[in-house]
Design goal:
- The chain is an alpha/beta fold.
- Helices cover 39% and strands 21% of the residues.
- Helix 4 crosses helix 5.
- The radius of gyration is 17 Å and the shape is globular.
- The relative contact order is 0.13.
């Protein structure tokens, strides 16, 4: 019965919009202005900290936030680029992500700043799962390696390489990796190496691949979108959420 209900819930989420309204929130990190998105389901609900891909925080993340609201989670979508910075050209996207890949301390500070802002808005920092897409997935793993306190970390088709000088020795919570085997941006070699690192550091983890799914397979309306992989990965994610936040 539970599986039937989950299937019905998934079908509803992927075909209808929620009536819950979110709001744009301007906040400061190290004196710079950032604009996140706060979408609340109810008081005292578990929190999902959502991290955008290399486009910046767009309607895509807002839609995912509302889907999570429908499941009973409060969501804060962080901004890692800065207020008003939503790049549309690939060269600009590479510039903004590249700057943060080169400055890992800044990336960690922005993730911590986003989490702190979520707490100020009423997010439950004692019952939080951190998740992200593509570049956001890499940022999630960066926070995990840096020892961020959370109930779990989730990456959808995200960057998986561990930078030189880092490790998962300080990762404090289980990790869920959702990856397409047809991803030419993030290789299966990266996927396998991460599995080895997580095992060596005794980090509880689950790593799932989807055949035929390219990079960014969850992005609605994109040529890369793969509905089957999207729905299966969302189901794995929501099951992870339910277990880790004890909903």
């Amino acid at each position: 019965m539970k599986k039937k209900l989950m299937g019905l819930a998934l079908a509803t989420m992927f075909t209808s919009a929620t009536s819950i309204a979110g709001e744009n929130i301007t906040y400061q990190v190290n004196g710079e202005a950032y604009e996140g998105y706060w979408s609340k389901a109810k008081d005292n609900a578990p929190l999902v900290l959502l991290v955008h891909d290399w486009d910046g925080l767009t309607e895509y993340e807002e839609k995912r936030a509302k889907m999570l609201n429908d499941l009973g989670y409060n969501v804060f979508a962080v901004d890692l680029f800065g207020k008003g910075i939503r790049p549309t050209k690939n060269e600009d996207k590479r510039q903004h992500t590249g700057e943060l890949y080169k400055d890992r301390q800044k990336l960690q500070a922005l993730m911590n700043g986003g989490l702190a802002q979520a707490g100020k808005l009423g997010g439950d920092l004692d019952n939080t799962v951190v998740m992200g897409y593509c570049f956001g997935g890499a940022a999630v793993l960066e926070s995990a390696r840096a020892g961020m306190d959370a109930q779990g970390f989730v990456s959808f088709h995200g960057g998986l390489k561990t930078p030189e000088g880092q490790s998962h020795a300080n990762t404090k919570a289980p990790v869920l990796i959702l990856h397409g085997t047809a991803d030419t941006a993030i290789s299966m070699a990266d996927f396998a190496q991460l599995a080895v690192e997580l095992e060596e550091n005794k980090v509880p983890h689950e790593m799932i691949t989807y055949s035929g799914a390219p990079h960014a397979f969850t992005v609605f309306g994109s040529p890369r979108y793969r509905e089957d992989a999207d729905k299966k990965s969302w189901a794995a994610f929501t099951e992870f959420l339910e277990v880790k936040t004890q909903m």
